[in-house]
Design a protein that fits this description.
With about 800 residues, the protein is of the alpha+beta class. The chain is built from 20 helices and 37 strands. It binds flavin-adenine dinucleotide (FAD).
Length: about 800
């Protein structure tokens, strides 16, 4: 062991070894993997070693595909066998809805270039003769699945890294981490002291404890998990070659060939946590005793689906621990305020994700940027709320128990809710609000007039769509009030505020009393935010952005801040209010405001501090519905007063409370994009149309070079609005768009435009298809639907209503 390294990776599991290998690939070889015991000594040694390319987050799915594709290279470079078996995998559907869902999964897999296909229950049972097809509705075969030897794979990554210069130091626990005066890390280990420029937390079951060493509490917990390995089974022995892995989606089990027997693993509905604070330091390569009573319900279902297992001996039980985060994806990347501390932990699917994590993290350490959209696994996607033990237990248990359970697109899951509520939560609930959740905050979806209304969970449009239609109608004909507590707000002040903002965002900075839409770009010219900048005073600004990006945005702001002259304060929880929009919104505001709110006195994109009823608010003339509208925010302790007074003032104008779903319908009629759909980390200004807000003549703003290059070359894809010949369901995010056999784009949002009575979708399409104005085919729940590019938004294309 040397006394100094550029990077110390704490943990020699599959993830830590992959991070070290990827750093070496990027030319960073002054790296040590420091391991408490042996390589694999956490979760990696006893994993089942299965891998899949599917993930609910499509960017993480792409990284899983990369992981699977890299194994042969690692095996060859290391000359260490990893037992790679590309057997393919079957997913079984036990209900008709699940079979439809598989059809949509197939359509999505095709967009990734995977040659998957659907099978009948009989064909599935022919492929894997252990399956009893009774009650099955169908199956999907994905050739891009398989399994490997987890021990071999971890050692292969370590050996390949070693060949490139990485050092592996075993039996050496990291005891503490502290910053030196020069900004390096003081690393105290059992074998002595060293310093490092960067440390990577790849400590698996101990990662929460390693995080505590630098003062962070990561939202991850270990949970035990069972699989069993059977004695030889004649039906398996008779298969010459590989046997496809099987996931029984309604049965909570997975099965893979293990010699001439099988491995059967299960995700029980009654999971358990273990060592929530992190595993004990002296926890060895240890398994827990099997808890058969607890897992019996799922085990019985497994034995019914695979009847041959009932007659065969069990050779070995494995009940081992691995870590879960609230959404099941890992925690990767830097942490705001702790320079050169990097996370690569919380990974519950290490053999599907190790290389994706390694790639993103190595890029991040070397370039300061992951080089791809890594938000789905970024440590900054959770706020501090997620590390609360009660919340963590509830959400991780829900994720674990629903590992294979289908969630309907309109289904609301209950774990950890309600957590954050606004002061008007009870009032909205009394008005019929049904809520969704955004970063722990309860957000109204729609307002059901009948207290006993029950929304059906469905892949199609639900019975709530009639209510959504009424809300959309109210906005087009009268007025709607939409709660805007779910906007993040930052106050930027100080003598250097304007200059700092001018570099931070790509648009021009507005005059006092004005609002401007302001794309924010990363160094490479890709989108980092669709902010709005509101100038309240010469050196006092508000930046408004996405609620769930708060940690992510603050990390970025803080990285750009000069030592003095600018202060950025997160005031999201201090100001709340409503977006009031519709042709009657001015008359409602006029009843409450003492100021003149006529179009002449208060035009589009202006902002004023003004009294609204009894509250002192800030009102911006801006709206997301395409109608005349105002965003009214007040100090949070006056939010409830504002609601009551707004409703009273709106009564004679037929003001209606509206939710997220109506907003989607209304904004699509105007082709308005939003973050997390049309605007995302790996999209660019030219693609998304946000380039129209860029001041290209500004001499300096972050991402300028990339934006100029794109302006010169033109984007390969652009955002368009489609009218879809849909039936009972609208297009959804990531639905593939084709012309014949050619994939020409993908959907970013779909909704029914209730006013224009069209099924609409915003989508990225190849430029040549747009130029030729071709008809395209969108796959909606796996069914082909014809769609046409709309040359302009179907509602008020000149935006006369917005400016009226
Ligand atoms: C029963 C079971 C079956 C599974 N099956 C699969 C599967 O089929 N496919 C799949 O992809 N995943 C599977 N997993 C999950 C998989 O095991 C994990 O995702 C993966 O092993 C995580 O790897 P890691 O490197 O993050 O953590 P770990 O393997 O836990 O490695 C962390 C390492 O850090 C070391 N360490 C911790 N603290 C310190 C310190 N202070 N100083 C030095 N070293 C330290 C530990 O000793 C350990 O070796 C399974 C898990 C279980 C329990």
């Amino acid at each position: 062991m040397k006394s100094q390294y550029q990077v110390v990776v704490i943990g020699g599991g599959i993830v830590g070894c992959s991070v070290a290998y990827h750093l070496a690939l990027r030319g960073v070889t002054d790296v040590a993997i420091i391991e408490r015991e042996e390589l694999t000594a956490g979760s990696s040694w006893h994993a089942a070693g299965g891998f899949h390319a599917i993930n609910a987050d499509t960017d993480v799915a792409a990284l899983q595909k990369y992981t699977i594709g890299l194994y042969p290279q690692v095996e060859e470079e290391s000359e260490q066998a990893i037992g790679l078996k590309m057997s393919g995998g079957l997913e079984l559907a036990g209900t008709p809805e699940r079979a439809r869902w598989l059809k949509s999964e197939l359509a999505w897999l095709k967009t990734t270039g995977t040659d998957a296909y659907l099978l009948s229950p009989k064909e599935a049972a022919e492929m894997v003769p252990l399956i009893d097809p009774a009650g099955l509705q169908g199956a999907l075969f994905d050739p891009h699945e398989g399994n490997l030897d987890p021990n071999g794979a971890t050692h292969a990554y370590a050996s390949a890294a070693k060949k490139r210069g990485v050092e592996v130091i075993l039996h050496n626990r990291v005891l503490s981490l502290a910053r030196t005066a020069g900004g390096d890390w003081d690393v105290e280990t059992e074998q002595g002291h060293l310093t490092a420029e960067h440390v990577v937390n790849a400590a698996g079951l101990w990662a929460r404890k390693v995080g505590n060493m630098v003062g962070v509490d990561h939202p991850l917990v270990p949970m035990p998990h069972h699989y069993l390995i059977t004695d030889d089974i004649p039906e398996v022995a008779a298969i010459d070659g590989l046997m496809a892995a099987v996931t029984d989606l309604e049965g909570f089990t997975y099965l893979q060939r293990e010699g001439n027997g099988v491995l059967l693993g299960l995700y029980e509905q009654n999971p358990r946590h273990w060592a929530v604070e992190g595993a004990p330091w002296d926890f060895g390569m240890t398994l827990f005793p099997e808890e058969i009573d607890r897992i019996m319900p799922e085990l019985s279902i497994g034995f019914e689906r695979f009847p041959a297992l009932a007659d065969v001996g069990i050779k070995r039980w494995v009940n081992g621990a691995f870590t879960f985060t609230p959404d099941g994806n890992p925690l990767v990347g830097p942490v705001d305020g702790i320079p050169n501390y990097w996370t690569a932990c919380g990974c519950m699917s290490g053999f599907s994700q190790c290389a994706g994590i390694g790639l993103a993290l190595a890029n991040w350490i070397v370039d300061g940027d992951p080089g791809l959209n890594a938000f789905g696994m970024d440590v900054a996607r959770f706020g501090p709320y997620a590390s609360n033990d009660t919340y963590l237990r509830a959400t991780t248990a829900q994720f674990y128990a629903r590992r294979f359970v289908m969630s309907y697109p309109n289904e609301e899951l209950p774990a950890g809710r309600p957590l954050k509520t606004t002061p008007v939560h009870a009032d909205l609930e009394a008005a019929g609000a049904r809520f969704t959740v955004n970063w722990g905050l309860e957000v109204p979806l729609y307002f059901a007039p009948a207290p006993d209304f029950q929304e059906n969970d469905t892949l199609d449009r639900s019975n709530a769509e009639l209510i959504v239609a009424e809300e959309a109608k109210a906005v087009r004909e009268a007025a709607g009030a939409y709660e805007i507590a779910q906007y993040a707000r930052y106050e930027v002040t100080g003598a250097g505020a304007q200059a700092w903002l001018d570099r931070l965002v790509a648009s021009r900075i507005p005059e006092v009393g004005r609002i401007r839409l302001a794309p924010m770009l990363g160094e490479a010219g890709r989108l980092m935010g669709d902010l709005s900048v509101t100038r309240l005073e010469a050196d006092r600004f508000w930046l408004t952005g996405s609620y769930y990006l708060q940690m992510w945005h603050e990390r970025w702001f803080h990285a750009q801040l000069p030592d003095s002259g600018v202060q950025v304060r997160n005031i999201t929880d201090d100001w709340m209010g409503f977006s009031l929009s519709g042709p009657k919104s001015r008359e409602i505001l006029a009843r409450l405001a003492h100021d003149d709110v006529t179009n002449e006195a208060f035009p589009f994109l202006s902002v004023r501090s003004m009294d609204v009823g009894s509250a002192r608010g800030v009102v911006g003339r801006i709206s997301l519905t395409g109608e005349l509208g105002y965003e009214i925010v007040v100090p949070t302790n006056q939010h409830r007063t504002l609601l009551h007074e707004l409703r009273a003032a709106g009564q004679e104008s037929n003001l209606r409370l509206i939710g997220d779903r109506a907003i989607d319908s209304l904004r699509l009629e105007k082709a308005y994009g939003i973050w997390n759909a049309e605007f995302m980390q790996d999209y660019t200004p030219g693609m998304s149309g946000l380039d129209r807000f860029i001041a290209f003549d500004k001499v300096d703003f972050i991402g300028r070079e990339g934006a100029l290059r794109e302006q010169e070359e033109g984007p390969a894809k652009r955002l368009v609005l489609l009218e879809v010949d849909a039936a009972d369901a609208d297009a959804a995010t990531e639905d593939g768009i084709w012309i014949g056999d050619r994939l020409v784009g993908f959907v970013t949002s779909g909704a029914y435009g209730h006013h224009v009575q069209k099924s609409l979708a915003l989508a990225y399409l190849d430029q040549d298809v747009i130029d030729a104005n071709r008809e395209v085919t969108v796959f909606v729940i796996g069914d082909p639907r014809t769609a046409r590019i709309l040359p302009e938004p179907p509602y008020d294309p000149t935006s006369s209503r917005l400016r009226s």
